[in-house]
Design brief:
This protein has helices spanning about 1-20, 30-40, 50-75, 85-105, 115-160. It is mainly alpha-helical and about 160 residues long. The protein is elongated, with a radius of gyration of 19 Å. It is found in: Membrane.
Length: about 160
Amino acid sequence: MCWWAFTGLTHFIVEGYFVFSPEFTKDKTANYLAEVWKEYSKGDSRYVARDAAVVAVEGITAVLEGPASLLAVYAIATGKPYNYILQFAICLGQLYGCLVYYITAILEGDNFSASTYYYYAYYIGANFSWIVIPTLIAARCWRNICAAFQAQGQTKKSKVR
């Protein structure tokens, strides 16, 4: 649940700010979220340039995956039967977003960082958990969903006899 709360709030608030504040670089008020994106842009200048692929991925993430992640917190806490399929779907979305994010960078030359430090700290490091954790959660959900279908199949077979 902690992961879903963290990722949901990150997507909804932090990435939502980026998507819906196209002129964050001009903000001189020391707004915390504007400063976060100015700093992160040192690792990926496509954010400052408002690259269409980056804005699209972040928009989908903020609008769909953020609220869905918070719904996952509720579903897990209350034992809703849809919690595994919801978590699995969100994980697929997060992994797909990471793939699009990295593949578009590679196709465009992967030269968007101010330095090697920012490349590894922000571009690679800050996104690493959105590959590893969703992969682990998706695998766990897959096993639980398959086990439920297997149990349902065995129940049907025993009723037929």
